[in-house]
């Protein structure tokens, strides 16, 4: 799948590994970036509120905690990709930063094999890894 620019985002013209996801039974699509550097998945408060995800709305602060982070959400959340692949999100962080959804290693990468070809601005998501693993690049 090619990297894309999130529609309606005038601040970002660089193509990224964006994926459209659907949360719970909400028919409104949510753009999320597939982020191998994020341990947890993140949702912005307006999305958590829209789908009725419970979380403590008192902003947290302290050592190692961003002032933008609220809390880990309570429970799990059923989701699916734009291709209909189902997955479960758990230990979701509700945060005003970065302002969009992130799919992290704790749940998304535990469900799917994810491969990035950053040079060609593409990524792959599959339930099963390739049988023989990664192939060496020939060019």
- Given the C-alpha coordinates, what overall shape results? globular
Domain count, please report it: 1
Based on CA atoms alone, the radius of gyration comes out at: 16 Å
CATH superfamily: Acid Proteases
By CATH reckoning, the class would read: Mainly Beta
The major sheet is characterized as: 5 strands, mixed
Uncertain residue segments: none
Query: Based on helices, strands and strand pairing, what is the structural class?
Result: mainly beta
Give the strand tally: 10
Separation of termini? 20 Å
Chain-averaged pLDDT: 84
Number of helices: 2
Listing every helix as H and every strand as E from the N terminus to the C terminus, the arrangement reads EEEHEEEEEHEE
Textual characterization of the structure:
The protein is mainly beta and 139 residues long. The chain has one domain (18-126): Cathepsin D, subunit A, domain 1 (Beta Barrel). 8% of the residues lie in helices and 32% in strands. It contains 2 helices and 10 strands, in the order βββαβββββαββ. The protein has helices at residues 45-51, 108-111, and strands spanning 18-23, 30-34, 42-43, 69-72, 76-81, 86-90, 93-95, 101-103, 113-117, 122-126. The chain has a 5-stranded mixed beta sheet with strand order 6-5-1-2-8. The radius of gyration is 16 Å and the shape is globular. The model has no long low-confidence stretch (mean pLDDT 84).
């Amino acid at each position: 799948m090619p990297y894309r620019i999130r529609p309606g985002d005038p601040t970002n013209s660089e193509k990224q590994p964006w994926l459209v996801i659907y949360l719970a039974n909400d028919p409104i699509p949510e753009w999320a970036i597939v982020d191998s550097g994020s341990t947890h998945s993140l949702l912005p408060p307006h999305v958590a509120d829209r789908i009725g995800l419970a979380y403590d709305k008192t902003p947290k602060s302290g050592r190692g905690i961003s002032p933008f982070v609220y809390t880990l959400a309570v429970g799990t959340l059923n989701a699916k990709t734009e291709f209909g692949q189902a997955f479960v999100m758990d230990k979701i962080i509700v945060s005003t930063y970065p302002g969009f959804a992130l799919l992290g290693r704790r749940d998304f990468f535990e469900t799917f094999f994810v491969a990035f070809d950053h040079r060609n601005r593409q990524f792959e998501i599959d339930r099963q890894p390739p049988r023989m693993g990664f192939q060496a690049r020939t060019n």
